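Slide 14.
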Amino acid sequence: MSFWRVLVSIICPPLAVLDKGCGSILIVFLLWLCGWVPGIIAALVILNNPKG
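Slide 15: predicted structure.
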């Protein structure tokens, strides 16, 4: 995971997971709407997933 992906996931989490699929984008977007911190955490977890 690069520095730029971490920075984008802090600023706008749904943009950081664009290449991970529609489900990931939807989950991160909904969590981001509920609160900024849950969206960031979800984006970082998805980006750190080795199977993704």
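Speaker note: The chain has a mean pLDDT of 93.
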